[in-house]
Amino acid sequence: MRLYSYVVRFDGGFAPFCSGALCTLACCKPRIRAKAQYGDWVAGMTPKDYGSGRLIYLMRVERAFTFAEYFRHATLRPRVDNIYRPKPNGGYIQKNNDFHGPDDIHKDLSADRVLASKTFVY
Q: Under 8 Å CB-to-CB from 43, ≥6 apart: which residues?
C-alpha cells in the first residue's frame, strides 16, 4: 500500500470530483493515475497560499477505468469529469466543458486511467 499526495492548486470541483458516494480522479496528475494500485491512497493537499499541507481530500483506490470504460458506463457518463469520448478508430475527443481545454488533452490522456473510490473524505 502506498500514499500518493499532491498539491491541489485549484479546488473547483473537477479534479478530484466527489459527488454522491463516489470520488474520481479522471484528469490531471497522470503519473499518480498511472501508478496507483488498488488499495493505495491518494491525498490532495492545500497549496502554500492556503496553509500548506491541509487535507482537501483522501481516497482509497478501489477501481480504475480507462477513459473509454468510464465514458461508456451509463451511470458515470454525466459526471463533470467525464470529458473524453472515445473515437470509433481509437483516441478520444474532448467534450466541451468548463474546466479543461485543448491545452490539457495531452497531459490528461498521457495516462489512460480514471481512479475511483467509494472510500473517501472530502
A: 3, 4, 5, 6, 55, 57, 58
